[in-house]
Specification:
[4Fe-4S] cluster binds at residues 59, 63, 66. The chain contains twelve helices and twelve strands. The chain is α/β, with parallel strands linked by helices. It has one domain (47-320): TIM Barrel (Alpha-Beta Barrel). Strands 1, 2, 3, 4, 5, 6, 7, 8, 9 and 12 form a ten-stranded parallel β-sheet that branches. Bound molecules: iron/sulfur cluster.
Length: 352
C-alpha cells in the first residue's frame, strides 16, 4: 500500500480526538503533522498569494479584532472602492513579485447590487493576467455567489473566525449560521472555499479544537485554511489581549494539517510578529501558503524580499500556477478589462 493510501480524508472528527491531538507532546504532534504533510504535498513548496484591500474601513460589523469596523476608533483612513484599473495595476505588481493568487478584500457586511458590476470586472481583469483570483466581500447570497463564479472567481474567503461557543464574544452583528450559509452558497456556485480563523483572541484550546472541527467536518474541506494570529490593534476591543503562547499557534497549524491533509494551510495575519524561527516551525507543522506584500489589508506584513530570503535559507520554492491562455489571448483580455474600466459605466463613486 502506498503512503498516499494511508491518508484518510475524514469528516467525522470528535472533540475528544481533536483535543487529544492538541495535548500530544509537541515533538509527537509535529512528527504526525509532518508525516501527513509529506504524504500529500511537496514539503519544500509554499503557495504565495497577495492580498489587496479594494475597499477599506467603515464596515458596519463589530468584529472585535478588526480595525476596519466603523465602531472602533483606530485612526484607519477610510477608502472608497478602488477603481478596476488600479486593482489590475496592483495585480500586475503582485504577479511581478511572484504571487500566483491575487486576493481582493472589501470591508462590507455584504456587497450591494450596485457593487457587483465592479467586482465582477475586477475578477475578469485580474484573471486575464493569468493569476488565480480570490475575493472576500462579506456575506453572499446565492445570486451574488453565482455572479462571482460566472465572472471566473476561483476562491471565496469567508472565515468562521473561532468556535461556535466563543463566537458570540467576538461578533454580534452576524451569526455563525449566517457564515455557514455564505459558505454553502459559495460551494453551490462551484467556487473553492478559503475559510479559517483567528487564534489568540482569548479563546480556550477547546475553542481552537471547535473551530477546526467545524472546518474539517464540512462535506468538503476548504481548499484553503488561513490560520491567523491576532494582530492587536489599538482602538479595538482586542488591543490589550494577552499574548498567545507561540507553541499553541504552531499546534493549531499542526492539528489543522492532520485534520485537513489536502488543504493548503495558510500562515496568515500576525506573521510580522513572528520571528523567522517561528515561521520555519509553522512550515514544518504543515503550513504551505503565505501572503506576500507589505500589508495584510490594513495591518503590516513582512516585505516580499525578506520572505524570499527566508525561502532561500530554508530551501523552499514557490508553488507555480498553470496559465492556460497563450500570451496573446492574455494581452487581449487585459486590454479588454482596462477598456471596460475606462468606460463611464464602471466609474465608481459610492462611499461604500
Ligand atoms: S472582519 Fe470584515 S466584516 Fe468584520 S469588521 Fe472587519 S471588515 Fe467588517
Amino acid at each position: 500500500m502506498s503512503a498516499q493510501a494511508n491518508i484518510q480524508i475524514r469528516h467525522d472528527w470528535t472533540r475528544a480526538e481533536v483535543l487529544a491531538l492538541f495535548q500530544l507532546p509537541f515533538a509527537d504532534l509535529m512528527y504526525q503533522a509532518q508525516t501527513v504533510h509529506r504524504t500529500c504535498f511537496d514539503p519544500n513548496q509554499v503557495q504565495v498569494s497577495t492580498l489587496c484591500s479594494i475597499k477599506t474601513g467603515a464596515c458596519p460589523e463589530d468584529c472585535a479584532y478588526c480595525p476596519q469596523s466603523a465602531r472602533y476608533d483606530t485612526g484607519l483612513e477610510r477608502e472608497k472602492l478602488m477603481k478596476v484599473e488600479k486593482v489590475i495595476e496592483e495585480a500586475k505588481a503582485a504577479k511581478a513579485s511572484g504571487a500566483t493568487r491575487f486576493c481582493m478584500g472589501a470591508a462590507w457586511r455584504s456587497p450591494k447590487g450596485k457593487d457587483m458590476p465592479y467586482v465582477t470586472e475586477m475578477v475578469k481583469g485580474v484573471k486575464s493576467l493569468g493569476l488565480e483570483t480570490c475575493m472576500t466581500l462579506g456575506m453572499l447570497n446565492e445570486d451574488q455567489a453565482k455572479g462571482l463564479a460566472d465572472a471566473g472567481l476561483d476562491y471565496y474567503n469567508h472565515n468562521l473566525d473561532t468556535s461556535p461557543e466563543f463566537y458570540g464574544d467576538i461578533i454580534t452583528t452576524r451569526t455563525y449560521q449566517d457564515r455557514l450559509e455564505t459558505l454553502a452558497n459559495v460551494r453551490k456556485a462551484g467556487m473553492k472555499v478559503c475559510c479559517g480563523g483567528i487564534v489568540g483572541m482569548g479563546e480556550e484550546e477547546s475553542d481552537r479544537a471547535g473551530l477546526l472541527i467545524q472546518l474539517a467536518n464540512m462535506a468538503e474541506h476548504p481548499e484553503s485554511v488561513p490560520v491567523n494570529m491576532l494582530v492587536k490593534v489599538e482602538g479595538t476591543p482586542m488591543a490589550n489581549q494577552a499574548d498567545l503562547d507561540p507553541f499553541d499557534f504552531i499546534r493549531t497549524i499542526a492539528v489543522a494539517r492532520i485534520m485537513m491533509p489536502k488543504s493548503h494551510v495558510r500562515l496568515s495575519a500576525g506573521r510580522e510578529d513572528m520571528n523567522e524561527q517561528m515561521q520555519a516551525m509553522a512550515f514544518l507543522a504543515g503550513a504551505n501558503s503565505i501572503f506576500y506584500g507589505e500589508k495584510l489589508l490594513t495591518t503590516p506584513n513582512p516585505e516580499a524580499s525578506k520572505d524570499r530570503q527566508l525561502f532561500t535559507r530554508l530551501g523552499i520554492h514557490q508553488e507555480s500556477y498553470e496559465i492556460h491562455q497563450d500570451e496573446k489571448e492574455q494581452e487581449a483580455a487585459v486590454y479588454q478589462a482596462l477598456e471596460a474600466s475606462h468606460n463611464d459605466q464602471f466609474f465608481y463613486d459610492a462611499a461604500k
